Amino acid sequence: METIFLFKKNGNAHFIQLPVQQEIGSSQELTVFYEGTPHVAIRPPWNGGITWSEDENGMPFIASSCQGIGASIWWPCKDHMYDEPDSMTIKVTVPEDLIAVANGRLRDTNRNRQAKTRSYEWFVSSPIANYTVNVNVGDYAHFEETYKGENGDLDMDYYVLKENLEKAKIQFKDARRTLEALEHWFGPYPFYNDGFKLVEVPYLGMEHQSSVTYGNGYANGYRGTDLSGTGWGLKFDFVIIHEMGHEWFANSITYSDIADMWIHESFTNYSESLFLEYHYGIDAGKSYVRGTRERIANDKPIIGHYGVNRRGSSDMYYKGGNILNMLRSIIGNDEKWRNILRGLNEKYFHKVVQTNEIETYISDQAGIELSNFFDQYLRDHRVPILEYYFKEGKLNYRWSNCQETFDMPVDVSIEDQEIRIEPTTNWSSIAIAEGLLEVDENYYISSFQIR
Length: 451
Hints:
This protein is an alpha+beta fold.
């Protein structure tokens, strides 16, 4: 027997009043019917909703996006990151001359000749964060290829406006290059069962799971700009590489609280330099990530406030990438570092995590106590200063402008002699002849010689 439940609305939440007491441990089913006028996106994908647009031929060009504002603005869900549905069916009905693309694999299409519509049914077989669910509608052309990856054959499908088909066939080669590079560094693409799609949309783009969206204008860099100022940022299409990087960090490994958004953005920012390193060499990758330092604000901590839907500083992008690049130098073994990155994606495959889990895993695998390092760089906005001076055949050094407990080894060279020192906030010294001291440029610190 079907029962109609009463509900009340409070903000974006709806509270359902059940008519009878429920037995603990029993399983019940609730069907929700809903309708309404979709929220119009103001600044997608950050202040999102539905973007209503037209292509150059006057055909409808529509896309959803809801990062930040939350998925509940356009579909009913438990709108919190710690709760992911383990699978999802997405059905969209559009005019018959349009194509609807969503996450996962296309399972069925049905044409209603009388209504002149076509329905598309997509199925996601993996756990999915609610904000990465999406629907895109357009006068699309479709092309495809197969990538032979670490877990076998991966279907790669591309949906672009018909007028951009030839440009896309050239520009979207970066998708295959990204898979090759990031499978090397991070391990297998996390959604072989759901395939991979790159879909053109009328906004910049976003990391929708297995349905990455693209709107970078078929230009390299970020809308044609090199974010690093080094020239390396124009060797790739930023939106393709960055948003695909999120398939590993955001879509497979997902934060449980937006305060830990650095887990998504720092690792994905770093993936840009790893892409460059894989295809152009280690100097290219490290030059790129160091070049982005000009965009660091150091205004507030990278980690935000927990339990109040508040993320930290936007430094989670550029500073976050530099933090990871520095960690690699501290560990001092490139293969161990690569194994740590791959190990994270194996241990936390399709899981929701907290910062302490990521920090502990890296420390344990590196064999280095890194809690003070993470406290300084994630929970404090200050950049540590290495203070030093030479006296009576000794180099004296300490950390300042930092937390009292901060300690971090740092690689320096003195007249071409490379050494590692281990400063704390107290003065220490080693015997060495005075000379020009230079800090390894992969460490994100300042240095100051006391005269």
